[in-house]
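Batch manifest, entry 17 of 40.
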Amino acid sequence: MADKNQQVYPLAPANGYVRSDGESLSEDELKRKKRIKCFAYIGIFIVFQIAVMTVFGLTVMKVKTPKVRLGTSTLTDFTSSNTAPSFSTTFNTQIRVKNTNWGPYKFDQGTVTFMYQGTSVGTVTVPKGKAGMRGTKKINVSVNLNTDSLATSSPLGSELSGGVLTLTSEAKLTGKVELMLIMKKKKSATMSCTIKIDVSRKTVNSLECK
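Output type: structure tokens
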């Protein structure tokens, strides 16, 4: 008969190793640190994605207004008269449509007007076209400029006598900038130029556009 007061001992693990409370805490601490590190990596990834999207939105997806300007210009067959103040010439230039966007700029047909003292002395048509992504569309044109529509009271005579003839030029092109093949935004390119002609040399002395 077994002794009723016999003490019962817990069974030992099969491998004979018993994990201490300290080791158990160490493993829990290790798991906790791994979770914290994982959350930290996720947080860094989210912040990185937000930064990338912000930069993308401020650069690639930001639509800028294209620019239209006149390039190098020359004169052909320039003639002028001080007696009955007048001039006539063929103005040869290059119209440049500059697009700094990350998508093409498609523009409609437009007109460049050349003026003396606010009165038109010649116009040229800009054909419908497209300036590629971060590119410049260049269009060579020639336009006849003359004083047929000028009033006799204009100060043209004094300018011709002074040797410098000042003309202005204006243009406006309307179109759309296309981004990522899904986004289209209307943009108008405008131009205002001042042209100074050396009467004696029959050349373009300066050309400033804005």
